[in-house]
Amino acid sequence: MPRYDYRCRACGSTFEVSRPMIQASDPAPCPAGHDDTVKLLSTVAVTGQASAPAPRGGGGGGCCGGGCCS
User: Fold this and answer.
1) Out of 18, 29, 30, 58, which residue is the most buried by the measure of CB atoms under 10 Å away?
2) Residue 62: its pLDDT value, please?
3) How much is the pTM?
4) DSSP-based three-state secondary structure for 23
């Protein structure tokens, strides 16, 4: 389930809420009970290791990668 970051405008605290994506825009009261909160723009971090190395060379497909440009 995705987690969304919010900041309370009343007390300044930052907190997370886990909820389905369909409820991403719903208001979220802060843990102190204030209702004046704003959803923060979060960054996504993708970690891990590729299972196969990326191909070397020009690649395949597309105008500038497939050889149709002179």
Assistant:
1) 30
2) 58
3) 0.57
4) helix
